[in-house]
Amino acid sequence: MTGNKPQTTGAAPPSVAEVTSRLKAVMDPELGDNIVDLGMAAVASISADGVVAIAMKLTIKGCPLRVQIKNDIESRLESHPGVTKVTIDWGEMTADERTAVMTRARWNAREQAPVTQIPLNTRILAIASGKGGVGKSSVTVNLAAALASVGHTVGVLDADIWGFSIPRMLGISDRLEARRIDGIDGIEKPRMIPNERVVGKGLLKVVSTGMLVEDESTALMWRGLMLTKAVEQFLNDVHWGELDYLLIDMPPGTGDVQMGLARMLPRTDLIIVTTPSVSAQKVAIRAADMARRSFLRVAGVIENMSAFTCEHGESYPLFGQGGGQALADEIGAVLLGQVPIEAAVANGGDIGEPIVLTSQGPAAQAFLAIAANIMNTTVPVTEMGGCTARDPEAVQVAISKRS
Ligand SMILES: Nc1ncnc2c1ncn2[C@@H]1O[C@H](COP(=O)(O)OP(=O)(O)OP(=O)(O)O)[C@@H](O)[C@H]1O
Ligand SMILES: [Mg+2]
Q1: Which residues are registered as beta bridge partners of 304?
Q2: How far, in Å, CA of 50 to CA of 349, rounded?
Q3: Is residue 137 domain-shared with residue 103, that is, in the same domain?
Q4: Measured from the CB, is residue 359 less than 6 Å from ligand 1?
Q5: Are 285 and 330 in contact (CB under 8 A)?
Q6: Counted domains in the chain
Q7: Which ligand sits nearest to residue 274's alpha carbon?
Q8: Taking ligand 2, which is a single-atom ion, which protein residues have CB atoms under 5 Å away?
Q9: What 3-state DSSP class applies to 238?
Q10: Both 132 and 261 in a single domain?
């Protein structure tokens, strides 16, 4: 066992296609492509008891990205319930293979228009749930604020096109401006500029349909608009600029957006929010099933609305207990944390001040601990080492530095 994956019994091992698909979510940011298409990774074998062996070929043995690639491969494969162990056999490319990969990387940098305006090194977290009202938006704004407060630049994309709540919860409702500007594809065209809010040492960049329409009732007119099209536009036509993290607040109970994300941004990690009750947990499994079908990784589970503690220190599990851990165990993911019920969470949402910025209470502490887990363990920022993958000369330099 390479990581401390909770054991999941009885799940069938993944197919070669499933493993390959998960490997395709692992990027070599310097070479601007995923490790499968670059010819660096292949499935060597999958045993009946769930041991997956991967054959990796690095451009050069001492590749500085090795640790990051290893962690990415392990975490993406181990989150499959049928995988019991991941082994990686590390090899080195021959001179000919290195030339081929260099040619491909140069071609990518020159010819291949990026599918979205999200930089290659941005870590993408989609906050999803099986049903509505469990606290996805509250989790999104508090994690975004916590990540920004320590100095990260964090994009927040409100994918709840009709039921947006992010503008209110972050206290940003200015209309989005558009201006003609170069994208990361080098094409100049009108692009939406995200609204910004400085948080601590970092920055939030926020986009929502709530910043395009006058009020929530006007938003109903958007019903005719295809949900996935709107999200696609937010990924393609917004000038996001540099981002360490992008947090996507998902609409309740829809598979379309997840499938669209899986197509446009296969490196998206899902965070599944559930309440502690066992019935909620059953519904949340649907979200995890969808993740599996779209080959997205579930980075972890957050239990929200856990036991309420009154001022006398007594604890009341109003919405049941144990659902978060049970869900995490069932889908083979980690429980990132439990956020208690606290009136301050709802108040903070109403006044546009995420409680991680204003409170020292247990709910704020829980959100901060989850953010720390994300930054330090589950989804750390990509180390780029000063690379610019879209610049052919930088690709050349990156590769020659490795050899
Ligand atoms: N830990 C908590 N303690 C108290 N209230 C909470 C907590 N988490 C969320 N809430 C409140 O519960 C309600 C639903 O939360 P939120 O809007 O974040 O859920 P959602 O999953 O995004 O909902 P939807 O599916 O409608 O988008 C809000 O009024 C919010 O303020
Ligand atoms: Mg919401």
Answers
A1: 339
A2: 44
A3: no
A4: no
A5: yes
A6: 2
A7: 1
A8: 136-137
A9: strand
A10: yes
